[in-house]
Design a protein that fits this description.
Strand content of chain B: 25-35%
Structural class of chain B: alpha/beta
Strand order of the largest sheet of chain B: 6-7-8-3-9-10
Distance between the termini of chain B: 35 Å
Oligomer: heterodimer
Structural class of chain A: mainly alpha
Distance between the termini of chain A: 20 Å
Radius of gyration of chain A: 20 Å
Number of domains of chain A: 1
Order of helices and strands of chain B: EEEHEEHEHHHHEHEHEEHEEEHEH
Largest interface: A-B, 21 and 25 residues
Number of helices of chain B: 11
Helix content of chain A: over 70%
Largest sheet of chain A: none
Number of strands of chain A: 0
Strand content of chain A: under 5%
Helix content of chain B: 25-40%
């Protein structure tokens, strides 16, 4: 099992390193920029520029230096980047089927479910490491650029952000794992789950603008990760993490069953 | 027959309405070199994939070394060395790392002496092993495929088109290796192939599969003895008499001054029956193994 997990890390080392560098660079730049804005005492005026309908999503983040530095954890593009990375990493079993490597691996005394476990461990630990690395980079950036007299983000907020971001990425990763339990082509699994993730994000976003959609938006996992609410202290963290965790566990169970029963 | 190393009972696989394999029953004895022949899509690879538990049968069962391929798949696969028809690779790995990775998930670590012997046999140099697999030729990938299948000295070797893409020297090296395994008698080889000369060279017995069904299982000696000879008889003038009704003689073509007949067994009966006819010339051609196999597979015969 260890050899299989290490092989997975080895194969994905480049995309993982690229995303890690991008996220670190963004985090450092964001804190440096926030420090510069704070020095000019313009942070509160930034919030005034945000349209009213966007206030629940991002407005709170622009009120203080500390909250501004946490935008990395819930910015739409970065969240989608991490979610799509999880979807890609978790589609590994379909890639193995498509390339024929599954023949070579399972012609040996390797239980089928090991391939699912391998990818689960690999995807979950990669995503968790990236998000924890973002938090560490935030701390390093605050030490490097944090201006005197400005409060840092509360540890509780950062931990909650880390938890939500990790779980939402795991959730879509697990769905991708389930899809690759059926798919014969990696591209099919990635496309199906990747497009679904974007659609669900848009659904949740539109629900903040258009009241009739709010009832439907509860089906979107993104409904359970609102950065603005975490910053404002109004998020129901326990419920959010429970829902995301349940979806993740259910999708992983489907992945095990599907991969065990399929023809390879 | 000694204890069967591979035993297949009424194995059936349907892909919806499409027949993959149907009611296939077959035993391969321990130490035997068995050729599994058929046209593309006949069911050879599906059968192999069911032995490896990559494909689940619709009904029937198969076992390797006494272990059920589905219910005791791990035990069965611990005794198999497998070469896939298309050799999958990790392009970013070197040949050495690739083999080392496969050894790490295998049933046992390969002996250094065995690895060196295989590298020498298949002409794989240290330099080759240090190159990344993305730079390998098709033949080089096949050589590494054979090495990974053979490196742990498994009791059962399952080889899907083993010599496809190999040059004549490597085909010879492969044949010699199989011969040695056959002489030692510890390894059972189950190989699918399209190359009839290769089957003729290394296999003791063959199974012919057509449209998912096993149509014949014979030793090569039986195949040869069954093969008819084609006799062409030219007459000096038109002949009106009937073809002699003799067991083992089949008229293939008849013209006024020429008969073409297939004869199974001795020619004496035919010669006796032709006595009194104005024979100008006779030509006897021996059927090759290829012709016999093609005939059994429903392909053309000459």
């Amino acid at each position: 099992m260890i050899a299989l997990v290490l092989r997975s890390f080895n194969r994905a080392a480049r995309p993982l390193a690229a995303v890690a560098v991008l996220l670190m660079a963004f985090q450092l730049t964001l804190v440096a920029a926030a420090a510069a804005i704070a020095a000019e005492r313009d942070i509160a005026s930034l919030a005034q520029l945000v349209p009213g309908f966007m206030q629940p999503l991002i407005g709170v983040a622009l009120l203080t230096f500390g909250s501004m530095t946490t935008i990395t954890f819930f910015d739409a593009l970065l969240v989608m980047l991490i979610v799509q990375l999880a979807v890609y990493l978790a589609s590994e079993p379909a890639g193995d089927v498509e390339s024929g490597l599954v023949d070579l691996l399972l012609a040996r005394p390797v239980p089928r479910h090991w391939l699912v476990t391998r990818t689960l461990v690999f995807m979950a630990s990669s995503i968790a490491s990236l998000v924890v690395m973002m938090a560490l980079t935030l701390w390093i950036a605050l030490v490097m650029f944090g201006p005197d007299g400005e409060a840092w983000p509360a540890p509780r907020v950062v931990v909650s952000m880390v938890g939500h971001l990790t779980l939402i990425a795991w959730c879509f990763g697990a769905v991708s794992l389930a899809a690759s339990g059926w798919a014969r082509r990696r591209g099919s699994a990635i496309t199906a789950v990747g497009v679904t993730a974007v659609a669900l994000y848009l659904l949740d976003f539109l629900a903040t603008l258009w009241r009739p959609l709010r009832g439907v938006a509860v089906v979107s996992p993104f409904h359970y990760f609102r950065g603005g609410e975490i910053l404002a202290g109004t998020a129901n963290t326990t419920r959010d993490l429970a829902v995301l965790g349940t979806i993740t566990i259910a999708a992983v169970a489907v992945a095990y069953v599907a991969f065990r029963r399929r023809d390879l | 027959m000694p204890h069967a190393a591979i035993s297949i009972e009424a194995l059936t696989k349907y892909y919806g309405a499409v027949v993959g394999v149907e009611a296939l029953t077959l035993d391969v004895a321990q130490g035997e070199v068995f050729g599994f022949l058929g046209a593309n899509g006949a069911g050879k690879t599906t059968t192999i994939r069911m032995l490896l538990d990559l494909v689940r049968p619709t009904s029937g069962r198969a076992s390797v070394a006494g272990f059920d391929c589905q219910r005791q798949g791990l035990e069965a696969r611990a005794r198999i060395g497998y070469l896939p028809g298309e050799m999958p690779i990790y392009p970013e790995l070197t040949g050495a790392t690739y083999l080392s990775f496969l050894a790490s998930i295998g049933p046992r670590a390969p002996a250094r002496a065995r690895m060196d012997d295989l590298f020498r046999r298949f002409d794989v140099s240290d330099l080759d092993l240090k190159r990344r697999m993305r730079d390998y030729s098709h033949g080089m990938k096949r050589k590494l495929g054979l090495i990974q299948a053979l490196m742990t000295d498994p009791p059962v070797l399952i080889l899907d088109e083993p010599t496809s893409g190999l040059d004549p020297l490597m085909i010879e090296a492969f044949s010699e290796t199989v011969d040695e395994l056959a002489r030692a008698g510890r390894t059972t080889v189950f190989m699918s192939s399209h190359i009839l000369s290769e089957v003729d060279r290394v296999c003791e017995r063959i199974g012919l599969v057509r449209h998912g069904r096993l149509v014949a299982v014979r030793t090569l000696a039986e195949m040869r003895s069954e093969a008819p000879r084609r006799v062409t008889i030219h007459f000096s003038r038109p002949v009106c008499s009937d073809v002699p009704a003799i067991d083992g003689i089949v008229m293939v073509a008849r013209e006024a001054q020429q008969w073409v007949v297939d004869v199974r067994g001795p020619l004496g009966a035919l010669v006796a029956a032709l006595a009194g006819l104005p024979i100008a010339d006779m030509r006897v051609e021996t059927f090759t193994l290829d012709d016999t196999i093609l005939r059994l597979l429903g392909g053309h015969t000459r």
